[in-house]
Amino acid sequence: MKELELKYGCNPNQKPSRVFMKEGELPFKVLSGRPGYINLLDAFNGYQLVKELKKATGLPAATSFKHVSPAGAAVGLPLTDIEKKIYWVEDMGDLSPLASAYARARGADRMSSFGDFISLSDNCDADTARLIKREVSDGIVAPGYDEDALEILKSKKNGNYCVIQIDPSYVPAPIETKDVYGITFEQGRNELVIDDELFANVVTDAKDIPEAARIDLAIAMITLKYTQSNSVCYVKGGQAIGIGAGQQSRIHCTRLAGDKADKWFLRQSPKVLNLPFKADVRRADRDNTIDVYISDDYDDVLADGIWEQFFTEKPEVFTREERKEWLKKMDGVSLGSDAFFPFGDNIERAKRSGVKYIAQPGGSIRDDNVIDTCNKYGIAMAFTGIRLFHH
To answer: Nearest CA to 338 among 267, 244, 266, 262?
Structure first.
C-alpha cells in the first residue's frame, strides 16, 4: 500500500488528508480501527523513541504519547509494590517486562496519558494488551502482536481501537521534508546516537555518574529527542517521571517537569496511598482527585458535600508543610535538557526535586554560574555538546 486516506487532518476542517510514500510501500499496516492524522504523528514519533530506548538499554520499552510529545517513557524493569499501587495495577499479578514498561510509562503522569497513543519496542504480549484494554487510549503501534494480545486489543472500543503494526526493518530516507505555508523545508534526519560517550565530559566538582544514572540520563535524552522543544525531562529508576514540553522559556520547562516529578513522588506518600476511595470510583476519577488533593486546591475535593462523592470517610488535609517534608526524601533523580541552561535558577529548581545528575549541551555565556550552582549542591553535570530541538 502506497497511501492511506485519513478522515481529516489535525482538525475536522482540514480535508483532504492522507499519508503516502513518494517511493516504495508504507512501512505499516492498520490491523484494527482507523487512525487519524495526529494518531500517526504520535505513533511514528513514539516508535522511534522506544526503538532507541531498546537499543540503548537492551530492555523492552514503552511510551505514552499525547499531541506529538511523550507524557511518559520507560523501560521494562520490575515494578515495586508501591509502583503497582500508584499505577493501579496491583490486581494484575506479575506483569511481563513489556507490560511493566507500559505501566510505568502510563503511570508517571496519568493525567496527561489519558487518551494516549502507545508505542512499544517489542511484540505486544497478552499482559500488555490486558493492561491497555482497561485504560482510555486511542491506539497502539508495535512491531508485532501475539495472537491472544491482538484478539484482546481488537475487542477494545467495540472493535474500533486503532492497532498498527510497523515494519521493524524499515529504514527512512536520510533527508526529511515538510511543508509550511506552501514552502518546503528540508533537513537531514536527526540520527544522533545517544550512549555513554555523550556523558563523558563532566564539568562539575562531583564527577561520579554511576551506571544506573547514566542509563537514566540516556532515557532522558532519547525522550527529549522526540519531545516538542523547549523540553526538560526528569528520570528515576528507568522511567521518565516528569516531562516539560513545548515551553518558550527553559525555566518554565524545568518547573513544569519538576512539578510533574513531584506529583509522581507525592503519590507514593502514605497519605495518598491510604486515601479511602469508594470502590466504584473509576481510575481516571481517582487520578484527577489525587491531582487536586496533593495541590493547594485540596478543598475542591475535601469540602463538605464533595468529598462524599469519592471517599468512604473524609481524609485529612495533606498540608503544604507535610508535602514539603515528604519531597525532601526525593533523591537520585537524573535530568536532561534539550538545550543549554542559561541561568542557575534551573539548577535551583531541579535540586528541589531530588536531582543529582544532569546532562545538557552547555555553551551558555553563564555556564560558570550554572556549574557553580551544581557545585553548591554536589550535583554532577555533563556537557554533551549536542542540542536536541524537535519541532
So the answer is: 244
Count of beta carbons in the 10 Å neighbourhood of residue 322: 14
3-state secondary structure of 319: coil
H-type alpha helices, 87-242: 97-107, 110-113, 126-133, 147-154, 211-225
Residue-wise pLDDT tens digits, 71-107: 999 999 999 999 999 999 999 999 999 999 999 999 9
Closest to 336 in 3D by CA, of 345, 328, 321, 346: 346
Grid cell 496527561 is found at: 112
Q: What is the CA radius of gyration of the chain?
A: 21
Which alpha helices (DSSP H) does 240-355 contain, by range?
A: 250-266, 270-273, 283-293, 299-302, 320-327, 345-352
Helix (H, G, I), strand (E, B), or coil: what is residue 51? helix
Q: Are 38 and 202 in contact (CB under 8 A)?
A: no
In which element (H, E) is residue 370 found? helix 367-377
Task: Return the residue matching grid coordinates 481517582.
Answer: 286
SS3 379: coil
Enter the DSSP assignment of 77. P
- What's 274's DSSP letter? T
Residue 195 has pLDDT above 90, yes or no: no
Length of the chain counted residue by residue: 391
Tell how strand 355-360 and strand 333-337 pair up: parallel
Q: Which residue numbers are catalytic?
A: 66-67, 230, 391
Pairing relation of β-strands 116-120 and 61-66? antiparallel
pLDDT digits (tens, 9 = 90+) for 203-222: 999 999 999 999 999 999 99
